[in-house]
Design goal:
The chain is α+β, with helices and mostly antiparallel strands. The chain has four domains: about 5-245, Immunoglobulin-like, CATH 2.60.40; about 250-435, C8orf32 fold (Roll), CATH 3.10.620.30; about 440-500, no CATH class; about 505-635, Jelly Rolls (Sandwich). Strands 6-5-9-3-2-12-15-14 form an eight-stranded mixed β-sheet, with no helix packed on it. Strands 21-20-19-22-23 form a five-stranded antiparallel β-sheet, covered by helices on one side. The chain has a five-stranded mixed β-sheet with strand order 24-32-36-35-34, covered by helices on one side. The protein is globular and about 80 Å long. Mean pLDDT is about 85; it is low at about 1-20, about 435-440 and about 505-510.
Length: about 625
């Protein structure tokens, strides 16, 4: 969810919450539901969602959302849904409250959840930690019905965009959704909504006489997870709600022109400190520097400034003790030596202009969770900022506010996306370049950036474990691995070097007086990719990549190579697999290359891609045959 606007509102009555009263809105469990053993519309399902209800209220000082879910367990494997995880972002001020649950057995007996949920990290993704309220419902058996409920409290004085996601991991028999929008004489915010892939026969959401928007759905198919698919929310049935001050635009072009002028005014107001920026540039560059070298020096200097976007969130008391003021312009950022990622990008923009470069601010769409569609007129989807600088007729897309990102490179969610290049007329649409990252003995490019971001707040022990665990994922066997160097976690260099001590017990297998050495040592990540015959969703790779393995294995004294697998070079233009094994007298040299110059593929190409990965797996299973020196080949 994205914050739309800080607002002040007239005093409102306190919200008194009672789940006893709210429960009156939930339909009772019927005798038929207690007796159910299967759902004809979801044959073989281990469990289904019988009923789900989501009620959002943005009208008060603290927006909140009530959630209720009722699940029927059909099979033993369905009992796992008794372990409930409610994801949330604590750093954004969201809080999960009023958590409850119960288990109802087929005989109608009820066991309430009496425990206390606890917080735990469930994933790290591109620098953000996903937390979850976690608890387990009691005494769940095959045939049981489980229910749980909770409320999400959002930060005070803020209005958030929201969405209804209709698909779930389980088939949903019936669900209700409602939203009471924010409205106030103190603000001119307006709400618009759009829907995507609604289930067949579903009526779109409607605004009722009480100004509450409602929708009901029935028989919603479960959502199927597949390897390398586009962002899930792009493929699910959903309704998006967006608050905006630009509700009077007649079409998308007019909307974006108006919004672009507003953004441009804000940017220009922040960067308009030309004299102080010229003085700053004089401290960074030399007159004899080439234009590109000047820009590189400016970029490096901006990245040396403390980036508050990547610091652990501070309490209000800590902020007060430090007495750090907010920055009003780029001069403040330069003199105080700190700023968030957006402010650092603005400083880079101002310094580049002061050095004589043509430079522009771009607001782009992050493709991590959705694909941007200008026709929806959702300004908050332009949630990434970067700078375009022209140097000797060449365009450089830069994002110094993204920590650890080398000059001329963007983090992967900002590559290959639409962006609004700002000017006083409202701007124009541009597309960011597609960039490459590759993995060799070192993590390079985007691979290095993402790991530095994810581990920026962790200690050396966690970082060491993360790299060791990742090494284990590459090898399709039990291994012993130890990180032996100290990688450079704090710079923006293009590479992150990790050196391991590696042991793979039993990797060489015996066959009489011969030994068999599989060539695909680091192939585990491709072992189970695209195994299913059918494909529902498009194929989506976050960015093009290339993986190169270069391995030399010293042979034991008295052993030699008896035979080598044939060299392979499979080229599908967008995907290539190269494998070669060589006899270097006392050593075996293995080289393997897997290149994917692909990002988005229609499902109709899935068969060809699946066949390609089957060839990869077949090649990785080839073996080098070893035998004692002097032994006959027949042995």
């Amino acid at each position: 969810m994205r914050i739309v606007r800080w607002f002040c509102a007239a005093p409102l009555a306190l919200f008194l919450f009672s789940f006893q009263s709210l429960a009156a809105d939930w339909p009772p469990i019927s005798p038929e539901e207690l007796k159910m053993t299967e759902e004809p519309s979801a044959p073989g399902a281990p469990a289904i969602i019988l009923y789900r209800q989501v009620d959002r209220d943005d009208s008060g000082l603290t927006a909140h959302e009530n959630n209720f879910t009722r699940i029927k367990i059909f099979k033993e494997e369905g009992r796992k849904y008794a372990d409930v995880e409610i994801p949330f972002f604590k750093e954004r001020g969201n809080n999960i409250v009023h958590v409850g649950g119960r288990t109802t057995h087929p005989d109608g007996s009820v066991i309430n959840f009496e425990g206390k949920p606890f917080d735990k990290p469930i994933a790290k993704a591109k620098g953000l930690k996903y937390m979850a309220k976690t608890f387990t419902l009691p005494s769940v058996q095959v045939g049981s019905i489980i229910e749980y409920w909770y409320t999400i409290d959002f930060s005070e004085h803020l209005v958030f965009d929201s969405r209804w996601i209709l698909n779930d991991e389980l088939f949903t028999k019936h669900a209700k959704f409602s939203l009471k929008p924010y409205s106030s004489s103190y603000s001119n915010l307006h709400l618009r909504w759009a829907w995507h892939l609604l289930p067949t026969g579903t009526e779109p959401p409607k605004d009722g006489p009480d100004h509450i928007i409602r929708m009901e759905v029935a028989n919603v198919p479960n959502f199927q997870i597949e390897d390398f698919m586009p962002p899930e929310d792009e493929l699910k049935s959903r309704v998006d709600f967006t608050y905006s001050e630009d509700n009077d635009a007649k079409n998308a072009d007019e909307f974006w022109k108006k919004h672009g002028k507003k953004l441009n005014g804000s940017v220009e107001s922040f960067v308009d400190k030309r004299k102080s920026m010229q003085e700053a540039v004089g401290q960074i560059v030399s007159p004899e520097d080439t234009p590109e070298l000047k820009l590189r020096k400016i970029y490096a200097r901006v990245q040396q400034i403390r980036n508050t976007s990547y610091e652990v969130r501070k309490t209000q008391a800590e902020i007060k003790r430090e007495k750090e003021k907010g920055n009003s312009n780029v001069e403040d950022v330069w003199k105080r030596g700190y700023g968030d990622g957006l402010e650092l990008n603005y400083l880079f923009l101002a310094l580049a202009r002061a050095a004589g470069f043509e430079a522009h601010s771009i607001f782009a769409s992050d493709r991590r969770h959705y694909f941007f569609n200008p026709a929806l007129m959702d300004a908050d989807k332009l949630d990434s900022d970067l700078i375009l600088v022209k140097v000797s007729g060449k365009d450089f897309f830069c994002d110094p506010g993204a920590a650890f990102t080398p000059f001329g490179m963007l983090i992967w969610p900002e590559t290959g996306v639409q962006g609004l290049l700002l000017d006083k007329e409202g701007g124009s649409w541009v597309r960011t370049p597609d960039l490459e990252g590759k993995l060799t003995i070192t993590f390079t490019g985007l691979e290095a950036v993402s790991r530095r971001l994810e581990e920026r707040n962790e200690d050396e022990t966690d970082r060491k474990k993360t790299l060791e665990d990742e090494a284990r994922e590459y090898v399709p066997a039990a291994i012993e691995v130890e990180l032996t160097n100290k990688p450079d976690w704090v710079s923006s260099s293009d590479s992150l070097v990790a050196e391991y001590r590696l042991k793979i017990p039993g990797w060489v297998s015996g066959a009489g007086r011969r030994a068999l050495l599989p060539v695909g040592i680091f192939s585990a990540t491709e072992k189970n990719v695209f195994e299913h015959e059918q494909r529902v969703h498009p194929i989506y790779f976050e960015f093009p990549s290339e993986k190169i393995d270069d391995v030399s294995i010293n042979l034991p004294l008295g052993w030699q190579v008896s035979s080598l697998p044939s060299a392979q070079d499979r080229d599908l233009k967008g995907a290539r697999y190269v494998l070669k094994a060589e006899d270097n007298k006392n050593a075996v040299h293995l080289s393997r290359q897997l290149s994917l110059d692909l990002m988005f593929l229609d499902p109709k190409y899935y068969a060809a891609l699946r066949n390609f990965f089957q060839l990869v797996r077949t090649g990785d299973e080839e073996q080098v045959v070893l035998q004692p020196i002097g032994a006959r080949a027949a042995n």
